[in-house]
Specification:
Layout (H helix, E strand, L loop, with lengths): L2 H13 L17 H14 L8 E2 L1 H8 L3 H13 L3 E4 L3 E4 L4 H25 L2 H20 L2 H18 L3 H21 L5 H18 L2 H20 L6
Antiparallel strand pairs: 1-3, 2-3
Helix pairs in contact: 2-4, 3-4, 5-7, 5-8, 5-9, 5-10, 6-7, 6-9, 7-8, 7-9, 9-10
């Protein structure tokens, strides 16, 4: 990963034991073992605990997570559809490489989907959902203040759950989820110890606050500004002439 990434990962691991309050749940269904396997594997890939091009197996992951091979296999099939792993028959599972071209295509698609979800959520969220989204903003702010990138990413994933409820558009949510996983990993992979974390987090919080405030146009504008920022960040990773 290199010295720069080692610094970031080291800082994150030093905070991994810290606990943070979670947003109140609204009748959240119990996760199946497959959903739990997916959640944990997706986080391991996004945060580079499973590094790009690493070769693993269902059996290794099953022992590592303490989850049976069948839920692991089903979770890996979903991750393969989301471009995070490649399943090679009789050889194993390879964590995909981080791809700048793919990231730019993801962001182009995210711009339209994220704007739709932000506007719809701000317009359609119930008072209870707005309260929980506001609480999500508070927890995210705490993670940013601590410099806890891992918790920030968890809350980013949690935001997708709330958008799935409040936007009332399951099709858009189904498209957005895999895009965000790819995007989060790219961002984490190239994140350095400078101010990029805070800059990204501030724009992210702008979306959450606009949704909580019930302002559809402000939420849509905040979404576009975040994507503009991520596109510029991605272009900066391209090799020079």
């Amino acid at each position: 990963m290199g010295t720069k990434k080692s610094v970031v990962v080291g800082a994150i691991e030093s905070k991994a034991g810290r606990s943070a309050a979670k947003p109140k749940q609204i009748d959240a269904p119990t996760k199946t073992l497959t959903q739990e396997a997916y959640r944990r594997l997706e986080e391991m890939i996004v945060t580079l605990e499973l590094v790009p091009r690493e070769v693993v197996s269902e059996a290794i992951l099953s022992r590592r997570l303490g989850i049976g091979t069948t839920p692991i296999r089903e979770a890996l099939l979903q991750l393969a559809r989301e471009n995070l792993v490649q399943i090679i028959p009789r050889s194993g599972v390879v964590v995909t490489a981080v791809d700048v071209r793919l990231q730019l295509e993801v962001l182009e698609t995210r711009r339209e989907i994220d704007r739709l979800l932000a506007r719809a959520s701000a317009k359609r969220a119930t008072p209870a959902e707005r309260k929980n989204i506001a609480e999500l903003a508070r927890i995210t702010e705490e993670a940013v203040a601590k410099g806890d990138v891992r918790e920030f990413l968890r809350q980013d994933a949690q935001l997708n759950v709330w958008l799935g409820r409040s936007a009332r558009n399951s099709v858009a949510v189904g498209i957005a989820g895999p895009l965000h996983s790819v995007s989060r990993r790219f961002w984490f992979y190239h994140l350095d110890e400078g101010g990029m974390f805070t800059a990204t987090a501030d724009l992210h919080l702008g979306i959450i606050r606009a949704i909580a405030a019930g302002d559809p146009e402000k939420a849509a504008d905040a979404s576009d500004r975040l994507i503009d920022h991520l596109v510029e960040f991605t272009r900066q990773t391209l090799p020079g002439p």
